[in-house]
Specification:
This protein has three helices and three strands; from the N terminus they run E-H-H-E-E-H. By secondary structure, the protein is an alpha+beta fold. A three-stranded antiparallel β-sheet has the order 1-3-2.
Length: about 70
C-alpha cells in the first residue's frame, strides 16, 4: 500500500489541491484519517475511485481516440 499526501494525490488525479480538500470534506473520495489534521490517500484506492467514476462517451468510442 502506497500512501500519499494531499499534494501528491491531487497531482495524481490532475486536480487542484483545493478541489481534493472539498471532495474529502464531502466524503466523496476515499481517504485514510490518522486524526483530524493527518490524512493520507491510498493510490490503489484512488485508481479504483477513478475507474468507478469514469464516464464513457455517448457515441461509445473510447476517450482520446483519433479521428
Amino acid at each position: 500500500m502506497k500512501l500519499v499526501t494531499y499534494r501528491e494525490a491531487a497531482e495524481f488525479l490532475g486536480i487542484p489541491v483545493s478541489t481534493l480538500y472539498a471532495l474529502t470534506s464531502q466524503g466523496r473520495i476515499p481517504v485514510i484519517s490518522f486524526g483530524p489534521r493527518f490524512k493520507r490517500f491510498d493510490l490503489v484506492a484512488l485508481r479504483a475511485w477513478v475507474d468507478q467514476h469514469r464516464e464513457e462517451p455517448r457515441d461509445g468510442r473510447p476517450h482520446g481516440g483519433g479521428r
